[in-house]
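Problem: given the chain below (79 residues), write out its structure.
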Amino acid sequence: MTVDEMLARAQQRLHRLEPHEAAEVVRRGGVLIDVRTTEQRDRDGTVPAAVPVALSVLEWRADPRSSAHDRRLGLADAR
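Solution.
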């Protein structure tokens, strides 16, 4: 399987939210993670209620068992 095929398969399992849907999930206690770079957030603005986390370390920040866990992200199975 090629990388493009693996990515396409993974993307088919994603449920992408529209902004109003994301706002409702956050209102109900969900966590919104902003994986854009600092430069992108500085240029384009921040997302209210989003937790900024670099994509390169997301797995460690989201894992409650990791010493690098970010408590703002809640539990690994949280929405």
